[in-house]
Amino acid sequence: MHNRAHPTTLRVRYAETDQMGVVHHAVYPVWFEVGRTALSHAIGRPYSEWERRGLLLMVAELACRYRKPARYDEEVTIWTQVCEIASRKVVFAYTITGPNGEVLVEGETCHVAVSRASGRPVSIPPDLRAPFERVARGRRPSR
Amino acid sequence: MHNRAHPTTLRVRYAETDQMGVVHHAVYPVWFEVGRTALSHAIGRPYSEWERRGLLLMVAELACRYRKPARYDEEVTIWTQVCEIASRKVVFAYTITGPNGEVLVEGETCHVAVSRASGRPVSIPPDLRAPFERVARGRRPSR
Amino acid sequence: MHNRAHPTTLRVRYAETDQMGVVHHAVYPVWFEVGRTALSHAIGRPYSEWERRGLLLMVAELACRYRKPARYDEEVTIWTQVCEIASRKVVFAYTITGPNGEVLVEGETCHVAVSRASGRPVSIPPDLRAPFERVARGRRPSR
Amino acid sequence: MHNRAHPTTLRVRYAETDQMGVVHHAVYPVWFEVGRTALSHAIGRPYSEWERRGLLLMVAELACRYRKPARYDEEVTIWTQVCEIASRKVVFAYTITGPNGEVLVEGETCHVAVSRASGRPVSIPPDLRAPFERVARGRRPSR
């Protein structure tokens, strides 16, 4: 069960494969980002709105563990969850599953809120922070 | 009207933008490919099946005309159409439209059927060719 | 002979291949851009300087003709040439050659100078335009 | 000092930036791969040779820590080091530095040797393994 994890699906693109015949490993962080975008919509605070307000969520850390490869034309699901949200920091966890629900990749990203104007870390405004707090769970999605 | 053109939608990814603040121009050919994949499903001959049968549709020519840029988080539609299908060749045309139906990019790709084993051009088997012939229109999608 | 075409070399990345076992066709426009960057350095007007001065060279048209595929770990050369430079427009032509000098891909891009501030076409300042005029040749690189 | 770490340089491509105005975070794993390719050449066991012999080095884990962003047209250096090589496993560490030698990104990848034919883990042949053992250092590059 992906408790509190937000699912979004996509179909694997041909351009995302490499000559091993499977999805290239640097594509999954892009899918994590797709998951974050979908989650930010689901809780009513689209990331595009953050940027319009002059706030960037820069990636400070990334981790991926690859279990099984995804393949061209498969439908995969990205389960995205807020693990932690603090004054200037958000941590997300991701589980990517394949057509039969099997886990393909797991990962986490840690982000720092930065002012676009100054390039310096800033506090996340309460109205952007609150909806993330409501869905935060404090650890990896249990399954 | 996109007569006989097959529509598929996607949401613009953050990774697809560049420092101009819009989608990088080399992303649209990847979206054309997404459109081809969707069309091949719609007519019951998924491209993955071609490859399982040892046939590759290699891109021989590509053309793109950029009208207006797509932006992060926008939903765009790729209208894909078969322009021509011959013994060893398929030509597709594409129109990508933005959230308000405005044309963003137009393009065409010309493909040659190649045997995966020999690397040489081969004839497209009739059962793969027929459904493409049924939807072929012979020119750019009229709108 | 690549008369007046500026050469730059790169080694094919694994991530640039796809499951056909060769470089994905949407990678070549990225290499064209690498060629433009190198040419702009060679004539003393780095593109990064254009952007610092508030000018963008937006891609208006792209064409590629694929002759032979590039493969992982090969060294390829991008020959870039200015075909035309006008008040608000630049046209480049490219020939990409493989390890033995064979032609892999040919292409052209047409660009429009746009003001970053207004988003509107603008005239290219004479000091940026002149060095491009000096190397312009008016047609595809002869070989 | 990057003791025993192999350096390779590249110039940041425009396509590698995103609308934050800096290199997209999913690009650095691709640069790590460029570093591995360069290291494998330097020790006389190009990765392309591994694949010709039916061996794949699949990525099992990836970690990145982002310190400072790289920007378009900058020359960056990827310092790659073998941390560990075992019967079926190789661990690499990377430090990416900017034009002034400042650390931009650090990371590690863990790989498992897999047979292309069977898809199953296999032992790395001694002649491929030995040169990696000679340069292995057992921990992150000290600087």
Task: State the oligomer.
Answer: homotetramer
Largest sheet of chain A: 5 strands, antiparallel
Predict the CATH topology of chain A.
Thiol Ester Dehydrase, Chain A
CATH superfamily of chain A: Hotdog Thioesterase
Determine the mean pLDDT of chain A: 94
Order of helices and strands of chain A: EHHEEEEH
Continuous helix count of chain A: 3
CATH class of chain A: Alpha Beta
Q: Which strand order do you get reading across the main beta sheet of chain A?
A: 1-3-4-5-2
Number of domains of chain A: 1
End-to-end gap of chain A: 4 Å
Helical percent range of chain A? 10-25%
Report the uncertain regions of chain A. Answer: none
How would the global form of chain A be characterised?
globular
Strand content of chain A: 35-45%
Rg of chain A is 15 Å
Fold and architecture overview:
The structure is a homotetramer of 143-residue chains. A 5-stranded antiparallel beta sheet of chain A has the order 1-3-4-5-2. Chain A has helices at residues 28-42, 47-52, 126-135, and strands spanning 6-11, 55-66, 75-85, 89-97, 103-115. Chain A contains 3 helices and 5 strands, in the order βααββββα. By secondary structure, chain A is α+β, with helices and mostly antiparallel strands. Chain A has one domain (6-135): Hotdog Thioesterase (Thiol Ester Dehydrase, Chain A), CATH 3.10.129. Chains B and C meet through helix 1 and strand 2 of B and helix 1 and strand 2 of C. Strand 2 (55-66) of chain B pairs antiparallel with strand 2 (55-66) of chain C.
